[in-house]
Design brief:
Layout (H helix, E strand, L loop, with lengths): L1 E5 L2 H18 L4 E4 L6 H12 L9 E4 L1 E3 L10 H8 L11 E2 L8 H14 L5 E4 L21 E4 L2 H12 L8 E4 L2 H5 L3 E6 L5 H9 L17 E6 L10
Parallel strand pairs: 1-10, 2-3, 2-6, 3-5, 6-9, 9-10
Antiparallel strand pairs: 4-8, 7-8
Helix pairs in contact: 1-2
The structure holds 2-phosphoglycolic acid.
Length: 245
């Protein structure tokens, strides 16, 4: 695991965007796994800038997102599909036919999870998976528990995740869903390369468990220690509990 501590989210975004753009310029048909939440937003801005400057085209990439809330349509401002459209896809030449999402509206969630699993497999696998980390150590919506999940599944969100994310729903007078669909840990671990971004003091404990803790499903992100190509980008605050490196 490569741990890189930089000054602020802007510096991180430049490095992370550079890796992603390089991947796409080496292989225009790259398969990219994207994340939502505050952590990747600056990186998406840098990718948009590079697109606008003609440094990269996303026309031929295939995308997979980590997760989606159960019950939300793509038009709901708090759905992760909407987030990706708003923060990246709609501002570049991404081909929406190549955008893959777990559907929050699927009636048969098991079938939906299987469909997504097959789609990832058929795509040839994810070249780069971008991740944030929850204050409880979750990646995607793989919440702390007693085992690591392999493929996509339906998850009941923990109170800590609800406490972190409910503000987005309250802002528009909605209640946050208690369930989500998420890629499993296996799906994430099968990505050929992983970039994780964590900033701010609220992530310091989770970051310590990710980098220095035991590999345990109680901190789902800790399994990344076993992946051969992970780069963790931190700012000074999120890295503040790490020992001397
Ligand atoms: P955040 O969420 O980027 O909004 O902090 C990260 C996560 O919950 O995985």
């Amino acid at each position: 695991m490569k741990v890189i501590v930089l000054n602020d989210p802007i510096e991180i975004s430049k490095e992370a965007a550079e890796i992603i753009v390089k991947q796409v310029n080496n292989n225009k048909g790259s398969v990219l796994g994207f994340a939502t939440g505050a952590s990747p937003v600056e990186t998406y801005k840098r990718i948009i800038e590079k697109y606008e400057q003609g440094e990269v085209s996303l026309k031929h990439i295939t995308t997979f997102n980590l997760d989606e809330y159960v019950g939300l349509s793509r038009e709901n401002v708090n759905s992760y599909f909407y987030f990706m459209k708003d923060n990246l896809f709609g501002k570049t030449d991404v081909n929406f036919d190549k955008v893959n999402f777990l559907s929050g509206e699927a009636e048969d969630t098991d079938a939906e999870c299987k469909r997504y699993w097959n789609k990832i497999k058929e795509s040839g696998g994810i070249d780069i998976q971008l991740l944030g980390i929850g204050t409880n150590g979750h990646i995607g919506f793989n919440e702390p528990g007693d085992k690591f999940a392999d493929g996509p599944f339906v998850v009941k969100l923990t109170q800590s995740t609800i406490d972190s994310n409910k503000k987005y729903f309250e802002a528009v007078g909605d209640t946050m869903p208690e369930y989500a669909l998420t890629m499993g840990i296996g799906d994430i671990m099968r990505a050929r390369k992983i970039i994780l971004i964590a900033t701010g003091e609220s992530k310091a404990k989770a970051v310590k468990a990710l980098v220095e803790g035991q590999v345990t499903p109680e901190c789902p992100a800790s399994i990344l220690q076993l992946h051969a190509d992970v780069t963790v980008f931190l700012d000074k605050e999120s890295a503040s509990l790490l020992g001397d490196r």
